[in-house]
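Q: Please design a sequence for this.
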């Protein structure tokens, strides 16, 4: 429960619009337009909480499209609890289709939702989430507005299958691209086999960014316990939609707000749970962003300090073998939380949207299948969280250690004289177009000791930051059996990828980051034990290169194509700071500073 007293009907925020005799004219104007489609005066002005429903489903966002049906159960729950539902659209964000990248729209959807939460007569909001960026956009706005808010995930798709083999969304693409490159399969087969991964409505069924971020919403305490990973078509999904609708009405009376829930302890819990899930490398970007909007400084050092030593418990692709259905049946997020609570790794007293603590919600909800959700003492991988690397090229870059394969470890991290370090010459690419044009160029002389570097792919270089750091080796190398090389870059990588790339390097090349100084043929040394990545070059040469770059006007990037690209580029912060809009992070609890009449 929140520490504030229960609200009374005359303290509802919506009274300012719907029941304000001092502003009789504007009040009447608000009422008449809602009444013109059949809402009664009694519903609007007799002290019922008005609940916004941020609808993220649309034809453009198929991962969330079933929210259009689910919302009927949400509205039934809201009405049964004495509230009045008002559904409105969230700016569409679809991961696979939006160009240049869906990440460009996270901050745009955030801004739009903030304005709705501030400028309309809402007492609380239910956030429908699913596809990758829909969840952080909604949580960032809830943190800024600070009106009672609850998350309803749409849930993952059913498992994909080919014969007896599980086919995971996204992850299969990364695998099949290699087989396409070697000619083992052709393009029609490639397309058909990828379609196997998407057998129903819902978001990606792997532990990609969508499943990760919805699980994070639950770990943060912002959705009902056990709700995040109910598969989209299961009967439990509409049931929890109803319960979530009913609960947000009660949260309004309790005045239970995001600021009560999104505390430092909650964010530390999210880091720990993310590590145990083998969660997406996009999670630190989004979680750090939500934290900053909640007024909490969370950094990638926190991710390494709290998360790196956590073992991998969720045996779900891309780090593991199973998919969303097995994860749900094994107990979902509460079973992972139970293991982590038992191991003393979480702040069990953190408050959640049902008014109970994380411990009260999850303790005792043990795994129902200890192959799918492992016991803490018997994990899939020890120390599975992110490493935060630093050096003379960047201040921060993340490496997702849960996906370091045996093969990668044997090739790069097993030299007896230097077990956690490797060194290689680099091949440098300026954006994904340059990579595709030149990766097979023999002049680059790429061999198994080459580190592939991608730059110009951060939030400024490629508006929103491109998921292009996990690069496939040249065809000739794949044909010789070398199907992955170490990769490093200032862009992001898909959460469904199993590549242990070093990514999100900040600051990025386009804003003066050190990757802009690299030249093909340079040598880089990466030392995981010391948390370092350094260009092996003397300081004078590095300074001379910097002087030349600055004299030339800095690292070049393509011009803006839309107004929003230009606006975002002018104020976006680096990936390690959450890729937030700099002026936006200072606003707190804006819903309570009522708009002018
Ligand atoms: Fe939407 Fe993966 S593409 S959830
Ligand atoms: Mg993605």
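A: Design:
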């Amino acid at each position: 429960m929140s520490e504030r007293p229960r609200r009374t009907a005359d303290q509802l925020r919506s009274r300012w619009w719907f029941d304000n005799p001092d502003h009789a004219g504007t009040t009447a104007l608000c009422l008449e337009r809602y009444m013109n489609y059949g809402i009664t005066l009694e519903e609007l002005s007799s002290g019922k909480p008005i609940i916004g429903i941020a609808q993220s489903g649309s034809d453009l966002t198929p991962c969330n499209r079933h929210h259009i049906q689910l919302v009927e159960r949400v509205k039934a729950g809201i009405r049964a609890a004495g509230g009045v539902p008002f559904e409105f659209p969230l700016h569409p964000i679809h991961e696979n289709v939006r160009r240049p990248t869906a990440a460009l729209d996270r901050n745009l959807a955030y801004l739009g939702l903030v304005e709705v939460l501030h400028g309309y007569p809402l007492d609380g909001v239910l956030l429908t989430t699913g596809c990758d960026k829909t969840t952080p956009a909604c949580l960032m706005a809830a943190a800024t507005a600070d009106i009672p808010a609850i998350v309803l995930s749409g849930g993952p798709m059913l498992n994909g299958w080919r014969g007896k083999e599980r086919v995971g969304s996204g992850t299969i693409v990364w695998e099949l691209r290699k087989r396409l490159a070697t000619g083992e399969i052709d393009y029609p087969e490639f397309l058909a086999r990828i379609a196997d991964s998407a057998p129903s409505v819902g978001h990606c069924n792997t532990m990609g960014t969508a499943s990760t971020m919805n699980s994070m919403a639950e770990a943060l305490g912002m959705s009902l316990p056990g709700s995040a990973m109910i598969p989209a078509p299961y009967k439990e999904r509409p049931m929890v939609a109803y319960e979530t609708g009913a609960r947000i009405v009660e949260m309004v009376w309790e005045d239970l707000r995001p600021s009560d829930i999104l505390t430092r302890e909650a964010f530390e819990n999210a880091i720990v749970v993310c590590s145990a899930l083998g969660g997406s490398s996009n999670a630190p970007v989004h979680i750090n962003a939500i934290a900053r909007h909640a007024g909490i400084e969370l950094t990638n050092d926190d991710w390494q300090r709290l998360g790196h030593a956590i073992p991998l418990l969720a045996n779900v692709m891309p780090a593991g073998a199973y998919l969303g259905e097995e994860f749900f049946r094994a107990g979902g997020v509460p079973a992972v939380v139970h293991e982590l609570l038992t191991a003393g790794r979480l702040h069990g007293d953190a408050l959640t949207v049902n008014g109970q603590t994380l411990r009260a919600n999850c303790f005792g909800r043990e795994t129902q299948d200890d192959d799918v959700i492992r016991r803490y003492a018997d994990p899939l991988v020890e120390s599975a969280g992110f490493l935060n690397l630093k050096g003379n090229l960047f201040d921060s870059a993340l490496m997702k250690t849960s996906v370091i394969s045996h093969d990668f470890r044997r090739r790069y991290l097993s030299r007896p004289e230097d077990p956690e370090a490797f060194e290689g010459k680099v091949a440098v690419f300026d954006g994904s177009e340059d990579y595709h044009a030149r990766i097979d160029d023999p002049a680059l002389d790429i061999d198994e000791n080459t580190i592939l570097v991608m730059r110009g792919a951060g939030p400024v270089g490629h508006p929103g930051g491109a998921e292009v750091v996990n690069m496939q080796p040249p065809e000739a190398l794949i044909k010789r059996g070398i199907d992955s090389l170490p990769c490093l870059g200032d862009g992001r990588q898909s959460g469904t990828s199993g590549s242990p790339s070093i990514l999100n390097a900040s600051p990025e090349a386009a804003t003066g980051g050190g990757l802009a100084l690299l030249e093909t043929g340079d040598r880089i040394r990466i030392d995981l034990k010391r948390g370092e990545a350094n260009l092996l070059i003397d300081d004078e040469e590095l300074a001379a290169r910097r002087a030349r770059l600055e004299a030339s006007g800095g690292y070049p990037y393509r011009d803006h194509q839309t107004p929003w690209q230009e606006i975002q580029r002018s104020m976006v912060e680096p990936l390690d700071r959450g890729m937030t809009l700099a002026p936006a992070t200072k606003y707190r609890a804006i819903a309570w500073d009522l708009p002018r009449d």
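Q: Thanks. Anything notable?
A: The first strand starts at residue 50 and ends at 55. The first helix runs from residue 15 to 18.
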